[in-house]
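Chain A, query sequence.
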Amino acid sequence: MSSAWKQPVSVLVVIHTPALEVLVMERAGQPGLWQSVTGSREGEETLTATALREVGEETGIHAAPEHLVDWRLSNRFVISPQWRHRYAPDVTFNTEHVFSLCVDSPVPVRLTPDEHTRCEWLPWHAAAGKVFSWTNRDALHLLARRVTPAA
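Chain A, predicted structure.
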């Protein structure tokens, strides 16, 4: 596969607080498409390295590997036609690996303007109603079952 093509292997990182406030970001050039941190693996990096790199690039949050939780959960889905040109011609499916990162409280976020235009910290159920992808929505529902919210 040419290095010009994106790998069909990605991460989804749900950033949340102990009270289950979740960071969601609106995609640049696609008003109304909200999501958690996502991104494709580059080169031979590990999935953990991909997740940490994407969190840093998309939010400015720099986390230690031990703070990232690998859910050992992956979702396989058809790559949307609007993004398929980024992949080799015969690639139609992506495998996304789910992670989470808990931060003490809603922290300031530094967005990358060509990727995201706005962000919000929302209660998990509001975030689940706002994100556009089923994998992101399912991850937020799983988060609510996995984590007991802090009072």
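DSSP finds three helices and seven strands in the chain. The chain has a mean pLDDT of 95.
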